[in-house]
Amino acid sequence: MHRLRTTVSRLRPLTAARTAQSLPPPLPRPPAATDGGLRTFQPARLLNTPLASEPFLNGTSSNYVEEMYYAWLENPRSVHKVRAAGGGPPGRAHADPGLPGEPPAAEPRREGPRRPGADLCRRVQVRGHHIAKLDPLEISCASFLHPSSISRFVSGFYGLAESDLDKVFRLPKTTFIGGDDGGLPLREIIRRLEVAYCQHIGVEFMFINDVEQCQWIRQKFETPGIMQFTEEQKRTLLARMIRSTRFEEFLQRKWSSEKRFGLEGCESLIPALKTIIDKSSESGVESVIMGMPHRGRLNVLANVIRKELDQIFCQFDSKLEAADEGSGDVKYHLGMYHKRMNRVTDRPITLSLVANPSHLEAVDPVVQGKTKAEQFYLGDSEGKRVMSILIHGDAAFAGQGIVYETFHLSDLPSYSTHGTVHVVVNNQIGFTTDPRMARSSPYPTDVARVVNAPIFHVNADDPEAVMYVCNVAAEWRNTFHKDVVVDLVCYRRNGHNEMDEPMFTQPLMYKQIKKQKAVLQKYVEKLVGEGVVTMQQYEEEVAKYDRICEEAYTHSKDEKILHIKHWLDSPWPGFFTLDGQPRSLNSPSTGLPEQDLVHIGNIAASVPEQDFTIHGGLSRILRGRANMVSQRVCDWALGEYMAFGSLLKEGIHVRLSGQDVERGTFSHRHHVLHDQNVDKRICIPMNYISPDQAPYTVCNSSLSEYGVLGFELGFAMASPNALVLWEAQFGDFHNTAQCIIDQFISSGQAKWVRQNGIVLLLPHGMEGMGPEHSSARPERFLQMCNDDPDVFPVSFCQDFEVRQLYECNWIVILQPFRKPLIVFTPKSLLRHPEAKSSFDDMLPGTHFKRVIPDDGPAAAHPQNVKRVVFCTGKIYYELIRERKNRGMDDSVAVVRIEQLSPFPFDLVKAESDRYPNADLVWCQEEHKNQGYYDYVKPRIRTTIERSRPVWYAGRGPASAPATGNKQTHLSELQRLLDTSFDLSAFNFSS
């Protein structure tokens, strides 16, 4: 026997006797048999071996196991004993037979020629994409395989003569390449495999460990003649190619010196996206949310979303003035929302392209979150009505970690969007870096293999191949509701932008590009040769689109003012108006009737389901909650329950997401109860508040900050009538999501007129736990606040509080607008005996307190107060304890600033004026160059018109947020308390 014995050999020359034999039925369980050196074959055991469980390394799958099983049924000797038993030494028993050019493993030589077995079909299915003709420039070497054709491999590896290629072989059940009688000449088998897998389409799918899915893909690509299009479909494809190409040429003629990040070299992206949308619409999809980087964005806006061309051309006029609030953004970062009829399916379709910055893949999780939200609000639990499409660049797809984070959300119950179509615009270059320096894997798309997403590589200079692949991708998504990747292998005709010179760094590539015939020209010549269109028809179509562009260009000059609102990607119809009029700015009371507080509190202290066994420690926590309700007080956890429960009762959806949020990192929340005796049985009491309440979603996330915060931001974009919260496990950890905070949350409204009500819960506090579990870096958020420290907003004479909130870039909820809210949440205060609030602070007529004045002896005799200490957060409890120990309750007032931004100038002024004879001190536990001091000091000085100095009490400057030594922490704390209460420390006149 040759080396084929170590694989499955079911392609055998057909004899008359064998032709008459029928194939065995699917996977029957035969009687156990042992023959000589062959061990008993156990299918169930084999499915658990490394052979079945390591498809990435071996190119094997459960299909291969099935094939081995059929082979064993026919002849037990045809399966090597170590294969049958699932054993053998590493690298030998489970080694893949290889592909063209891979040397076979050492094996005793036998007489007679090698014979191509079923492994030939499998090898091509596994690795045929390596020798497919994918690169339009014909210069890439993605393949590690030589020789470069199946025929040369067969003759070289199996030792067959030319005459052997005409022998008839039986085909395995895992192929669809044809043969009515179950057999084909080897020459024809090779030809059909090359047509299916080695032309302009390369398919990676054999790592998928699902037989049905693999068979579905095989059928789509192996069935002879399946990639056929009608003349009408070809003419539609040509029209789309014309629009894609001529749009870029028009912009180049009119604005040759402007950056636009054009699509030249991948013009087939436009028909690719339209094909995906058409096929999805045909399957019932009503809404498509898209995200993409800047390359080709204007073309997508024009020819996929169908943004008015005059609005696009308007963006190129530098003389126009913006009429909307905010700073705006460059044109190739803007988004769009458009509802229209799909002309192919005659069904309505809503298309949304999400605005995003130059941070390329940062928009990926935002799109997924927005998609999930729309599915949620529509009750689309299977993703049949709403879907997402993500367009990527090759270098970013391979290089940006957020891609990996987003893929790993794809099948999590609370984050899955039931399949995304990923389209990679594979320029084969990243700015000036070629793939050899940009990634360590053969393809930029290899990251998608971690979630078993099929990857369809296609030569972007073959529009019909692109169209077919996109049809299959859309059909895959709508059949299996899983992710799929389309890799458009193309090139970038210009540099990174239109001003860039690519010859500096890629001279050979760009010499080839300059000689490259444009894809539209090649496709027109093909269709004219086939008689599908005439050259006159083509020229008329080109002239028609050119006229459309010229008319839009003329009309764009009539636009005197640039309206950013035309570029909204997430409009909220009806939210900003009431009875057709703009909503008035007001700040309604957020208090609740006491009976509601008691009812919600009792729910928080109960287990609503019968025969549900909870942990003993949790029983004590629930009893503690019941006691607080009876005493009419709330700690932080119960107060959170009151806030969430009251909103749910009013029909407002609440979604809380993040690492370990169900229990709470500090074991304080317990919003999800787990039965101690029944696996996977859970109870969420918050969903038992009222029969007609809104649903409460609380979900532990993957161990991701960047991806999950982006997802929740996208979720919050979809509707203003929801409370969407993301909690960091520790406040420190938000720094790995800094891109989302900086580029989307802080500046999103200014750049894209996009309001958002996302809430960030960031546990913060200096408690001697070291530098990594102390600070949520409040100074970073305060630095990005847009209120002026040197200007007292006197224009806000009326409705001061709400006007401030409206003008700022982030804060609160329950307003006629939405702003992000940053909450520095407690850790030790979760169980601090004094950190509680009375029900009296939550009854109707009450509001959030931006500033909490001192209500002790100092406030009763303000003229006797020598010092006012302003502070925020946990340090307050340290200060009042120290004040009491020193007997200074009547000489030092402690005032809490609860709303740091926008800064409560009015209330701080009132407190400062109350104590005219007092020094003013800002106290914080953070280091001087961190925390709040640099933000608060100039604003207090502006408030008091610089009539008095504002002194500092706190830790000195440092590079790390906190010490890791407990004793050092305590000594630092004592020093700052000493400074706060030493009345002579700042009194230089004494």
From TrEMBL:
Residues 107-117 have a biased composition (Basic and acidic residues). It is an enzyme of class 1 (oxidoreductase). One of its GO terms (biological process) is tricarboxylic acid cycle. It catalyses: N(6)-[(R)-lipoyl]-L-lysyl-[protein] + 2-oxoglutarate + H(+) = N(6)-[(R)-S(8)-succinyldihydrolipoyl]-L-lysyl-[protein] + CO2. InterPro entries: 2-oxogl_dehyd_N, 2oxoglutarate_DH_E1, DH_E1, KGD_C_sf, ODO-1/KGD_C, THDP-binding, Transketolase-like_Pyr-bd. It comes from the Eukaryota. Its cofactor is Mg(2+); thiamine diphosphate. It is found in: Mitochondrion; Nucleus. Keywords: Calcium, Glycolysis, Isopeptide bond, Magnesium, Metal-binding, Mitochondrion, Nucleus, Oxidoreductase, Thiamine pyrophosphate, Transit peptide, Ubl conjugation. One of its GO terms (cellular component) is nucleus. Residues 1-38, 82-117 are annotated as: Disordered. Signal peptide: none annotated. SMART domains: Transket_pyr. Gene3D superfamilies: 3.40.50.12470, 3.40.50.970, Multifunctional 2-oxoglutarate metabolism enzyme, C-terminal domain, TPP helical domain. Residues 634-832 form the Transketolase-like pyrimidine-binding domain. One of its GO terms (molecular function) is oxoglutarate dehydrogenase (succinyl-transferring) activity. Belongs to the alpha-ketoglutarate dehydrogenase family. This is 2-oxoglutarate dehydrogenase complex component E1.
